[in-house]
Amino acid sequence: MPSLSPDSAIEIPHGDRHGPPGLTMADGSVPDGVTVFVTDIPAVTKLKPALLDALRKAAKDAEEVGIQFVVNSGWRSAEHQERMLRDAVSKYGSKEEAARWVATAEKSLHVSGDAVDLGPAKATTWLAKHGAEYGLCRIYGNEPWHFELRPKAVRNGCPLPYADPTQDPRMRR
């Protein structure tokens, strides 16, 4: 996992914030500075309603202590996801290594609107500490920016994160 100070920007290894060249916001690319409160960016508006509601509640509370959630990636089109995967295979040298960072379109929870990648580090640190109160959990140890909705976490706390997506049974189906 990257070593980050609370104020540092989070560098997403697969570079998905703006997406692969040639894709647009309609594919899920995200301009700089987008928050969970925007109402006109598909990467945010196409998140599942329960996830978006939990994110907005958490973000509102985080803002009370001076922390803003920035969406680096949310919903993505299948084309966006597949291009990210091809880029990751090229970068990491194999499908197996790329799978530690990027799922196929068929398995990606970003394509279904069930996952969000947030920044900066101060926000993800806050959410890792308080997210269970909203049902928001960090799922992968190697992706401190990746959060998903786990409603039972409100009562039971978040489950331990998988080391990386290759350990997640949902990615092996």
UniProtKB/TrEMBL annotation:
Please give the biological process terms from Gene Ontology that the record holds: proteolysis
Tell me the segments the record calls region Disordered: 1-27
Q: Where is the D-alanyl-D-alanine carboxypeptidase-like core domain?
A: 46-148
Record-linked SUPFAM superfamilies: Hedgehog/DD-peptidase
Matching CDD domains = Peptidase_M15_like
Pfam families referenced in this protein's UniProt entry, alphabetically: VanY
GO MF annotation: an example? peptidase activity
PANTHER family found in the cross-reference section: D-ALANYL-D-ALANINE CARBOXYPEPTIDASE (PTHR34385), PEPTIDOGLYCAN L-ALANYL-D-GLUTAMATE ENDOPEPTIDASE CWLK (PTHR34385:SF1)
| Protein name (Swiss-Prot/TrEMBL) | D-alanyl-D-alanine dipeptidase
